[in-house]
Each structure stands twice: as structure tokens, then as C-alpha cells.
Design a protein that fits this description.
Radius of gyration: 22 Å
Number of domains: 1
CATH superfamily: Ammonium transporter AmtB like domains
Structural class: mainly alpha
CATH class: Mainly Alpha
CATH architecture: Orthogonal Bundle
Number of helices: 16
Distance between the termini: 80 Å
Strand order of the largest sheet: 1-2
Largest sheet: 2 strands, antiparallel
CATH topology: Ammonium transporter fold
Amino acid sequence: MRVLSYLTTALLVLCPVSSALAADALDTGDTAWIIVATALVMVMTPAGLALFYGGMSRYKNLLNTYAMTFVAYCLGSVIWVMWGYSIAFGPDKAGMVGGLEHAFLSGIGVESLSGTIPTLVFVVFQMTFAAITVALVLGSVVDRMKFSSWIVFTVLWLTFIYSPIAHWVWGGGWMAGMGALDFAGGTVVHINAGVGGLVLSYILGKRLGYGKTPMFPSSVSLTALGAALLWFGWFGFNAGSELAADGIAASAFLVTNTSAAMGALGWMFAEWMINKKPTLLGIASGVVAGLVAITPAAGFVGLISSLIIGLGAGVLGFFSVAVLKKKIGYDDSLDAFGVHGMCGIWGALATGLFANPAINELGTGLFFGNPKQLFVQSVSIVGTIVYTAIGTAIVTYVTKAITGGLRVSEEEEVLGLDSSIHGERAFEIE
């Protein structure tokens, strides 16, 4: 046995495995981790986000909010494997979209690899990102959008807005070419969803009685539980985006938790100082704000940076919801733009400031000697905002033409969408 061991060692020294071959080899540890991460991200939409949004919606619209979140996940699951994945990750076409060579996952089999994991695992992992992104848009328009219009909008938005932007950043498109850093979805997911929701809410118009009639959340307890599930799932969202079980994934895991905690504390103390009461809704919202902001930076920044990013997100999120929303006067029902849009912008900029090559050699920010990165991040932010705003407006008007309108009737809105659309009630009200 000892002789065999010596011979094996000698062969490895004389005939080393090439790094290219090593990179293409299946790693069972990486594969197992990404399967778990995918399951974590899946939980974020039909469980975490559904509870988070459902609890913030009015009692008469809670089930409708759940249903629209669920259907977004179901549609995302189907559209992604039919053509969304190919548009995002197919062969590059002029830096703008991927080709349709992988439509219906053509050419991808059980032996196909993406790095050290099966490509099929990578497909499902990315699908969960697509599904939650369009579901986040819903937060801007609950209480007033037709269920049928939401279905059509979801199909069009995932096809023409989300998938191309995912290609720009992660699929070899023009943003990747200029060196934009987005570890897990600051531009692709959060700025994209926040801006999309803002545009859709403007076109839909304000809810009946907005600014005049109190619109209380149906259950802050459900929202807090949803925030906790989102926090739990976000570990897969961020640490899983390394696509390997390694030190960068561990660092992303750590800074994700730290930023979320600091976001909650930042929002809580800002609200406490301004409104004199630290609300549970504010703490839960601060958790999400901190998670949003660390998302693009998770694999590039260290502990101290995550403390700053999380604190900034909590304070920014609170003022975006409490001050900016009132000054501009838009009706973003559950503050998708204030939390995801604004904190996503902060997170993308912060990545350009704090990216540390000692954490990840692929990213160096302004404070580590590369001022150009902040410019690149700014271009990626502006590019995402412009494309999403214009594209969402077009998709919305096309949806309106297809479905004959975007809004429920006044009678349905007053009665509540749980009863008028679904024939169900979340609570028995005497």
C-alpha cells in the first residue's frame, strides 16, 4: 500500500491536473451547497415575501397579495425554463441579450456543468432570483391591480425587462464587460424591481382614499415573520451567489447577517428619534433594507464595511418611506421603491466604495485605490433605471391593451380583492 501511495504521488507530480480540467470538474460539496441555497431562496418568495407583503396589506386584500405573490413564483418558474434562462445566459448578442439556443433548456443535460456545479442546478438557482424580482414589484401596486393584468404583466416583465438586465450583468453583457460589480442582485434584482414598481404605481394611479383614509396593515405579526423568513432565505441568496462552498461564501454569509442587523437598528433608532416610537414594522423593514443594500456587495466587502452599509440602508430606507414618499406624492403601497429601489442604489454605490481585493480579487473599490469602480457602478445604476423605467412603462401599456385595463373597479376596490376576485376571506370580521 505504501508503494502504491508513492507511485500515486509521483504520478501527480509528473502529470499534474490542469487548472482548466479542475475548474470543469464536478464538485459535490459545491453542488450540495447550491442545492441548499436554491431551496433557501425559493422559500423567500411564496413564504417570506408573501407573509411580509400580506401582513402589510389591508385585511380585505391579504389573500389577494398572497395569490399574486404565489402566481409570480409559478409563472417565473415556467417562463425561466422556457425562454428566460436563454435570454439571460444564452450566447451573447451584441452585449444586450442572450440567444434562444437554450430555450426550453435545449442543449443542457444532466452532465452539463457551470463551473463546478451541474448547469441544471445553476438554472434553478437563477430561476428563484427571477421569480422573487417580479414578485417584489407587486409591493407597489397591491390593493388595486387586476389579477389578470398582473399575470400578463409578470410574463412580459420577466421576458423583456428582467432577463435582459440579468444578461447585462451576469450573462456576459455590456455591464459585465465594463466591470460592473453586482454579487447577488443590487441592480438586477432590487433597483430593477423598485423602479419597475414605481413606474407601474404611477400608471395605475393612487388607491381610493389614499392620504385621506387610514390604511392599516392587516397583521404586523405576519410581516415580522415574513421578514425573518426573508432574512433566513437571504443567506442562500447572497452566500449562494458565490456558486461554491468557500471562504468568499462564508464572508458573504457573515456580512449579510451583519448588514441586516444594522439595517434594523438604523431604521429603529431613526424612527424612534423622529416619530418617538420604535415600531415592529419599522424594525422588520430595516432588516429588509439592510439585506437589500448588502446584496450587490456581499462577496466583495468585509465586516466593517457591512456595518456601514447596513446602518446607511436603515436610515435611508426610513427617510425614503417617511419623507421622500410624502414629498413626491406617489402611492407605492408597500414601499417597494423606498426599500428596494433606494437601498439597492445605495448598495450598488457602496460596492464601488468598499469592494476589498483582500476579500475578492475581482473587486476593488474607491477606498482601496480604484476610483474608476465608483464611476462604473454609477453607470450601471443609471443604465438600469433608464431601461427599467422606459421598458416597464411600455410593458404596462401593452398589458393594459391586452387585458382591457389595469385596475379593478371602484366597487371591487372598496369591497376588497379577497372577496371580489377570489371569493375568500383571510379574517372573519363580525
